[in-house]
Design brief:
Elements lengths: L1 E9 L5 E12 L2 E5 L31 E4 L3 E4 L1 H10 L12 E4 L8
Antiparallel strand pairs: 1-2, 2-3, 4-5, 4-6
Amino acid sequence: MQITQAVLEKNNGDHFKVKVIRQILWIDGIRYELREIYGIGNSEESFDDTGSGEECVICMTEPKDTAVLPCRHMCLCSECAKALRLQSNKCPICRQPIEELMEIKINNVDR
């Protein structure tokens, strides 16, 4: 079962916009809340050809594949994430303490 909680927001005109507040999944009696991972999508806002925003913010060579929890910033490769966890234990984006690292493998068929 999936539950989506949303609100209707009225724009300046007569149009309404749906804003999703929370999504919850129930699978085999276990509740899961779906949450966004920041930095996992392709960046549409590319101003030049110098970078795609898909590389690790530490080494800037390897593709990012690790999200920092609880802030949910996906900004590190797995090797830099392990080293950062031992050295500073803070997210390089927001400086929030790292509680857990979540490695996410993405298959890019389009490229």
